[in-house]
């Protein structure tokens, strides 16, 4: 099969022929119909993830059709249209049995722990726990974004941040995760403030429901202190701005990765009784609520897809993330 292969961190990957993944017991192999280009893939390419072993194939946001079914997998057949969370949980540990597959200690992540979906085929381990059947009318391009950015934002906004109608929510960073958060928080009835350096991203944020758009350095006191702040990019500076902006007893939700760590103003965290909340993906069993909202028209993840590229165009697009984040979601069709 053809795949994007990283042979050296930070060096432009190449598209070449590699062996197709094997179908192990408990797993399936998918024909990749669409896969998202995400900043997490850039972090992996730059060497920020210790799980990656070179040579490596990135890609963790995916949708496709089942091409092969491993021994012991029931309820799924070749040809089924599916997606999967980027966290493939084991289904057997204490966290999984409690329904918290997103923090499974035995999790495997395509594009990080093993070769991912920037390829024509990809394996999905622990298939019965992690596969999500796609609605017949949902395109693969739309579904690809559900595995990481949209599903991650849905859980972060709705289930972790517990955003409710009438609250003010500030979203820092309007890439795919941030724009998803803007759309979801707005659909929940929140007054959304979108903050980004990119005017095109802010224009999209307005179309997805943002009531206010600001470029940094943003003075949130102009529109009122938020109940909830969300770092959808991953920046120590953003974290400090978000915590300073929150009203007393406000909640900060951290989605963006912070490879270099962060220093918190713990005095303010304590004195204002602020909550710092981490949010990491969403388990497969939680998808139905999100899919129902999509089916009803309350959420429109298809609108987030602004660019489709080929496998051959992917190395350059990955490298370009070093300098800029394109507005909207980029989807690769292998």
From TrEMBL:
Gene3D superfamilies: Medium-chain alcohol dehydrogenases, catalytic domain. SMART domains: PKS_ER (SM00829). PROSITE patterns: ADH_ZINC. The keyword 4Fe-4S does not apply. Residues 10-332 form the Enoyl reductase (ER) domain. Its cofactor is Zn(2+). InterPro entries: ADH-like_C, ADH-like_N, ADH_Zn_CS, ER, GroES-like_sf, NAD(P)-bd_dom_sf, Zn_alcohol_dh. The keyword Metal-binding applies. Keywords: Metal-binding, Oxidoreductase, Zinc. Belongs to the zinc-containing alcohol dehydrogenase family. This is Zinc-dependent alcohol dehydrogenase family protein. It comes from Kribbella karoonensis.
